[in-house]
Amino acid sequence: MKYAVSAPQADLLREIAAASEAMRIPPARSQTAWALEQRGLVKRTWRGSGQVAVVTADGRYFLKHGRHPRQVRAEKERLQGDGAQAALAPAGGAELVSRLKSASGRKITVPDPAPKTRGRWRAAYYDALHHGHVPDGHKVRWNGRQRGDCVFTLVDEEAEKAAQPPPVPTVDVPEVLDRPHPLVRATRKALGRSQGPVDTRGRAEIIPLHVSRPLADRALRVAHALLTEAESRGHAVETQTDLQDGEALHTLAITIRGHAFPLVLTERTTKVPHEPTPQELRQQERNPWTRVPKYDEEFNGRLAIGAPAKSWYQHSYSYSDGARWTLESRLGLLLQDLERLAAEAERREQEQERAEAERRRRWYAALAQAREQQIEQHRSKTLIEQVESWRQAAEIRAFCRAARARADGTPVPAEEAEWLEWAEAYATQLDPLQHQLKTPPDPPAKREVLRELSKVDTYAYPWPFDADGRWTLPEVESADELP
Of 34, 104, 259, 450, which sees the most CB atoms within 10 A? Predict the structure, then answer.
């Protein structure tokens, strides 16, 4: 719980306490009254369309003593247990180090100890520090010397150094360009002897710049150092031209692992009040609805490099001059960011490729299973039809025998004999056992049938069956090889 009270909260609390009855809270101070209520210093309620508040006993105590009564009680309780907690502290540095070695993570936290307890832990710390109890290659770190939790940690210095990231290599920016990078040379040639602001963002085959003329030379030296260092690391540097909103967009890109990162060198700007020109004043007199801009953007001498606006990487990497550093000192960090982004992009592509391969594998496995199910259904249907034909043939023959037996030795009439002969011949035609049995040919692998069996989109990938229903997937020789 928060016990501190800000100056506006203290002023409102005094006003509420001085009021003879419940004080109405203006809407502008409702948030302040809510904060006082959270601390238990006032009580609020609705009266009519607004809020009113009265001071509580804790609020009057706070006004009289300048401290929250709960804070006072908590400190008294903490001091009452100070002696018992101090007795639990380590007796010396050797015991402190021993406890740290056996503690989880080699860390001990003492929650906000009282003065005596904090003093005992402090004495153990200094005893370990000055009497050789700390093991070689280690150090004891202590946080919370004066207030708050005391945290003691036994640190392995070698492991800590090994865990630290390697230092970012610096990129040296030359003071004079004797042998500039080809793109820098082309850009310098394109600038000519113009003394106005430099803006080459709309020109191809050169470095995109948007800086004031005094900063152009420094921008080119920075570009030379960055491009030279990128190429020395094995990265490609090239200018690119893309279409954006139907217009050509020319950029400079560093390509790492097949991923191009566009760059543009600009000078930061500052808003300054706009001074209307005589033409703007005359136009406003003729048309009062004419809008004159309030501010102008002026270059402020801070050089920046990063992804162009509205690009895919617009907010991914950008560095500029700061109050305590220059852009030149940040070029190594920029290249480090680009290499990290390239590694992340490559990892995402690999994950997408693996996911796509798994989807493709599952799709073909589903089709292979559906094909097996189709063949199984076709064979079972053929078998059932054969059994049914065999049963019908047997019943027809039995029927013919019963018809002849009915005559009881007398000649069967010619018409009946003719019919029974046809029936027996038909039974022979129906009976599948009159011929050698063999596996029926597989049905054609139709997309409609397999879609119903597999419940997948049969047009998602190339069809693996030929016109005869044979498996033709080039990567897998047969459906049996699918997992």
Answer: 450
